[in-house]
Structure formats: C-alpha cells, structure tokens
Amino acid sequence: MNKFFSLHALVMIFSVSLLGNSKPNIVLIYVDDLDFDQVSVYDQQKFPSYTGAKETGNLKELNPITANQNGRFLKVGEMPYHKNAQVLTPHIASLAEEGVTFNRFYLTSSTCTPSRYSLLTGRYASRAPLLLKDNPPGSVPLIAWNANMDPLENNLAKDLKSAGYKTALVGKWHLSNYDIAEIDFEKGFKGHHLNSEKSKKLLPHQLVGSYFPLTADYGSGEVQDELERIYGIMQRRVKRISGFDVVDRLYYANYGELPMPKHMKVHNLEWLTEGALNYIEDNKDNPFFLYFSITAPHGQYFEDWMEKDWRATPAGMLKEKPKGMPSRESVLQRIDKACLPRQNAMATWIDDSVGAILTKLKKSGLADNTMVLFVSDHQSRGKLTTYEGHRAPAIIHWPKMVNKGVVEEGIFSNIDILPTLLDLAKGQSPKGSLCDGQSFLPMLKGEKLEDWRESILLETSYSRAIVHKDWKYMANRPPQWVLDKMEEDQLETQKSGARRHVGWSGRTTNAASGMGIRFNADQDFPYYFDADQLYNLGEDVFEQKNIIMNPENKKRLEELKKKLESHINDLPHHFGEFGSVHH
C-alpha cells in the first residue's frame, strides 16, 4: 500500500509539474526611445529614423554646437544620426531571423507614460481613470506624461497572475505621480529647498529631481540611507498599484527626474539585467511573466553611458559589479574592431542585455517554451507628436510555435499585447473590463487573421492621427489658450527671426536649449505647424510633404476623416469637430 501510494504520489507530482510548465513563459522587453536605426533588422532608408532621414536627404541639420544643446544628450560635434549606419546587434537580429518582425507596429502614444499605460492595459491612454479625473468627457485631454495607472484597474500583471503566472517588473515604471506622503519633496533632503530662492520657482517634478542638493555627498552613509528609504517606498507603491508579484531594480521614472544625487543619475543596464536573470532563475519551474522595462537608450546617439559610475542605482551605490553581461569595455572593443563610431555603442550594449536573457533561457531549458517580445515604447524622432515616432521596432520570438523569419506587414499595436498574451496564457480580464486591442495569437501560430484592422488611431499631445494602410491624416486641435500662446510666439519670432518655441502641446521650450519646439519637431517635420496634414507613407515615410491641398486627395481625405471620427466616437472625449454629441 505504501509503495503504491508513493508511486501514485510521484505520478501526481510529475503530472502537476508537467502541467505547470505547459504554459509558455513570457519575457516582454520594452525599450525606451529605441529607433529603427538602433537595431540591425530594418532597412534604414525605408523606415523612419534620423539616420534614414540623413541618408535620404530628409534631415535638416543644425550646426554641431546647437546639436550639442538640443536635448539629445550629444557630445560636441555630434549630430542626431549614426555617421555609419551599421550597428552590432546580433542577438536582436537572431530574434528576427528566428521569429516575427513587425514592419508596421504602432504605439498608440509617442511618450513614455501613455505608451506604457496602453501596453499594460490594452486601452488607449485617454481612457485612463486618473487622466479622466482631471479631463472629464467634454474636455480635450493632453496626452503626455499624465496617463498614470489606477490601482483599481486591471492590467497584464493582474490578469496573468489570475491565469497562473508569477509576474515581475524589472526596470522602469513611469506610471505614477510623486504624491507620496512619506517623502517631502517640497522640503528636499534636510530641508535644503526651504532655504533656496531657486527652489521656489521649480515645478513639482523638478522639486523631485533636485531633492538632493548638487553638493550632496553621494558616498555618505546618510545619503545612502535616505536613498534606500525612498527606493523602498517607491518599490512598495509600484507593487501595490501594479499588482506585480515582484518589483525589482526599479526606476520609478526617468533617472534624470528621480530623487538621487546628480552623480547617480545614470543608465545601469547591467544592474537591471542581473535582476531579470535572477528572476528567471528563481521562477524557472513555474510559468512566469517578466516585464523587462529597460531605461536605455532614452535620447540615443550618445556614448557617455560608458563613462558613468557602474555602482550607481536608484537603490543606492553597489559594492560589487552586477553579473550576467559582458563588460562595457568589451562593447567598445567590438565597436572599435568593426571600425564603427563609438556613438554606435549604445545599440550593442542593449543587444548584450538581450543576449544575456536569451542565454539564460537556453541554459535553463526554457528557450523553446518562452515567448520573447522585443518592443520599443516609441521612437525619439517625432516624440510628443503624431508623426512616425509612434511607429517603432517590434519583434516576437517563440521557437515552439512561430515560423522563422516571418515579416508581418499588417498594422499592429501595443494595445494588442494584453489580449494576445492573455490568449496565449488561456486567461482573461475581469468581466466588464475594456480592451481596445485585439489578439494576434493566431497569426503567430501561422493562421490567417480574419478581419484584421486596416487603420489605427494615434493620440499624443493635443493631436490625433489615423493611419490607414499607406496613408496618414493628422489633426491638431488644442484648446484656445494653446492657440493664443502659439500665435503670440509666432508674432514674436517674426520680429526677431528666431525659431518658434511653442508647439501643439502648449509647452514653451527654453530658447537657450538650442531647440525650437520640444524635441525639435519643427526642425524634423517642415509642416509641423499645419493644423491638418496628409501623408502618403508609401512614398514619404519621413513625412516631409504635406499633400492635403492636392485636389486628387480630396476623396481620400474625407474617408480618413470619417475613420478618425469613428475612432474618436469610441473614446470618452470629443476632439475638435470630431466626436458625436454624447461626448
């Protein structure tokens, strides 16, 4: 009897273990501001990026000194494109060679917070409850860094947990504000803001970023203790809001605006990667979901990350080097050996992180049964606009199911990730939950997608756009106060001959930055200030020719406006003349 019971128990244990591993693991790598020219997968001249624009004669160049000041973190003499278009990204290339490459993958918003909101919820950012609280139906919401996540709404972490997955966020969050009772940002570290006239003029997020004075000794125990305290508070907050089982190696937001001494505001990709590898090791016997949200490149086309302190993290200064990635020195050795500019090194650094993940999965025997998604949150070119900054690299690798070397030309989006992964996990969102995306799992399995979308809505700033096959219609409809501010700025620049500094978002760019509009959109897109724009993406992927006035496009324009109207009607707010009266 005992022998029978023991054998029966072993069979049951084996069966449960087999069942537990039958669900595919999921690793979702979400990269920050990654452009098409940062991976060796896409044809630079056919996909929108700075390097592609340069190579095709579609980039208006500023002088190097101005470029150094233009907000792209460039060194003196550098310009915002690769001087040599070749990048060393063999691991990312292997994902494409063995998986599916998306040529038309769109982020519904082109800034960090709303892009991440839509990724994790499957919903347009304009639906975010906290955004709706400040922008009720009847108003026109600014879609920028304000689509924070509400702890009561469902998301990928919660839904996959209900489907039997262990879940983790490693890396950047950027989906919460700084209204944190336990941290007095207005006072600053040891009250230094109270004694500063400059601090009285700072915006709330600037008070956070300057929480420690510039003179703070980052090596002191007092500063390190405070960093550890702040990190713990933010870590617990993100875990509570998001529902992830594990929140590790957290960047609460962009490192530049985090409450850390200036010396410590760096990308630390080795630290993040080590956290991801540890999570995979700890959960290799159970189905897991890893949201690996890396902070790099964010700004791109620069190499100063090599010179930063590898010890610096939001959780404090490390005492030992993180394990799992090749050294930074080896990145430069490979770049130099290939006779490439060191400006290209960031791409290889990111590729090394991806390679470490793939190696870990392989050595753990998990590679065949793990879906790896490599997606950018948006591009740096066209950020905070509805230009093709919404369109970015996306690759899915799943050896167990996906055919090798597939190139998908359909229009897909970050709002499709949640329904697709829930379909994969045989899970579902709570009853009554909204989802704007669709599952494309059948396509990954080699099946034809019936009635797949032909168009998608893009929403950023006070702008909306409809992309339909090779055509895009863009509409800018800000509130009157923005229009008044833009007109005043235009009149001033007509007198002075300077560049304009107020864009469709209503933000004023500091002239001393060397930029015109935020992120230099007025430089990159010649028709930026047109309220209505029409582009044939098949012929003009860099969006340099607004053909809205061409008589032969009149019928197509009306069709696109109707499509935009139908999308707006599904969302909470009206938009200019678009949207029915129920809004």
TrEMBL record:
Annotated coiled-coil segments of the chain: none
Domain Sulfatase N-terminal as annotated: residue spans: 24-425
Pfam families, sorted: Sulfatase
Keyword Hydrolase listed: yes
Family annotation (Gene3D superfamilies): Alkaline Phosphatase, subunit A (3.40.720.10)
UniProt keyword annotations, A-Z: Calcium, Hydrolase, Metal-binding
Domain of life from the UniProt record: Bacteria
Family note: Belongs to the sulfatase family.
Name assigned to this protein: Sulfatase-like hydrolase/transferase
